[in-house]
Amino acid sequence: MSTNTDDHQPAEQPQPASIPPSPENNAPRSPIRSPKAVVESDHKQPVFIGLRKDDGRPTVTMKELLSALENGSTNSNDNSPSSVVSTPSRSQESKQYKEQNSVIMALIDTIISSDDVRSRQRMLKFAAKRYASAIESNPDDYDALYNWALVLQECADNVNSSANSHTKDALLEEACKKYDEATQLNPALHDAYYNWAIAIADRAKLHGRTKEAEALWKQATKSYEKAVQLNWNSPQALNNWGLALQELSAIVTAREKQTIVKTAISKFRAAIRLQFDFHRAIYNLGTVLYGLAEDTSRTGVLVIGNEISSNELYSQSAIYVAAAHALKPNYSVYTSALKLVRSMLPLPYLKVGYLTVPPVENPVAPHCDWKRFKFVLNHEGLQQIHDDEEKTNDRPAIRVDIQDIVSVKVCSDLTLPPGPSIIIDTIHGQIFLIADSWEYLDSWLDALRLVYTIFARGKTDVLAGIITG
């Protein structure tokens, strides 16, 4: 089962399965830093990590920056906080940079572009010369280093990896070196760590399933980790971190794989909880759970909490794929994936499971009166079921309509019975639920929040069509 992010190249499949690959494979890069301009990469789904609030730097497009450079209206970082006057003591260092720059420019000259990108490549080359010149004048200009690295990444995107992977890899390697230098000068550049991780991941894809690729994927995860540490409120970085871990899990030993996969799941889940409608992370979580279900089915070894079966993992995977499709029904990759996993849902419901609840008319009942019941979740709401026939009778039953939900969250009320608990705030009051385990709590939380998010985005009809046929 393959994965989905915010870029344009198909992902390699981490394990053999028939879920279709995503049409977009990396989140877009963070903007170029400059006192005069900030540049974004030209991708189909531009969602960018913003600059630090204390930067005070405007954002423009790559086209605008390169146009400014071409017209000579952009200064060479005269007002940059990282700019200092070059001194004679740096002449040897500047000479070394000139030699390195000539090698890089020669590498850029080898790029053979199609007609539709040739003009852009000329602009990128012009920008590369300007940033190279800035570094020769002031090797401590971390802004110029960062900008140059991103330009090198853009150049690498113009290289056909199947025809000339060596050139592409060399350009990405040079970009990584520039990011390394920039972050050594300014360790607070979260944008640099984020883009650095993307460059490393792009290099890893060129090396297939080799030891070199394994080392690169590990480097990428460390860079994403650093980016998240510096800017925790970034679902894109968390999503890409999960993808890097998922790719790494396909290379390492079986013993290492279990830990890495569980960590990937936590990153996708964290991304979703920062942005409930982040359909790429939702889909990616479905893919990693599908792969885990395949492994569990093949080996018979229960991985998550030593209690979740392969059938349950398949069902959970289908929930996330269905939710991604409901949020983005026009994405063909989600449509194809849904055709494969829809039968794994507990139709005509999205989720079926057990929760421990108090009597309907007495939410503060003694612990001994709380009972474990089957619950079903569909596009309309959560419903308690009293018998095996899944039919309600005259006995009161808990029902939560999705449209009545205000919030769904983990509850830490010590007056509740022991166990991982959920509180659902509704317009009619609060409802408390106890899950069988923390793993099942996570799945219930996600399912409830996803159904509500789909309702809030006006896509309930799409979800209804999925589960009712």
Write a brief caption for the model:
The chain has 469 residues and is an alpha+beta fold. It contains 14 helices and seven strands. α4 runs parallel beside α6 and α8 runs parallel beside α10.
Strand numbers in spatial order across the main sheet:
1-2-3-4
Strand content: 5-15%
Unreliable spans? 6-16, 32-61, 73-89
Structural class: alpha+beta
Rg of Cα set: 26 Å
Strands, count: 7
Q: What is the first-to-last residue Cα distance?
A: 24 Å
Give the helix proportion (percent range): 40-55%
- The quaternary state of the protein chains shown equals single chain
Shape: elongated
Q: State the helix count.
A: 14
Helix-strand topology string? HHHHHHHHHHHHEEEEEEEHH
Q: Return the average pLDDT rounded to an integer.
A: 79
Q: Biggest β-sheet, characterized?
A: 4 strands, antiparallel
Layout: helices, strands, pairs:
Elements: H1 62-70, H2 91-109, H3 115-137, H4 142-157, H5 165-185, H6 190-206, H7 211-230, H8 235-249, H9 254-274, H10 279-299, H11 310-327, H12 332-341, E1 351-357, E2 371-377, E3 381-385, E4 399-401, E5 405-411, E6 421-426, E7 429-434, H13 438-456, H14 460-468
Antiparallel strand pairs: 1-2, 2-3, 3-4, 5-6, 6-7
Please characterize this protein's 3D structure:
The protein has helices at 62-70, 91-109, 115-137, 142-157, 165-185, 190-206, 211-230, 235-249, 254-274, 279-299, 310-327, 332-341, 438-456, 460-468; strands at residues 351-357, 371-377, 381-385, 399-401, 405-411, 421-426, 429-434. It is an alpha+beta fold and 469 residues long. Mean pLDDT is 79; it is low at 6-16, 32-61 and 73-89. The longest helix has 23 residues, at 115-137. It has a 4-stranded antiparallel sheet with strand order 1-2-3-4. A 3-stranded antiparallel sheet has the order 5-6-7, covered by helices on one side. It has 14 helices and 7 strands. The radius of gyration is 26 Å and the shape is elongated.
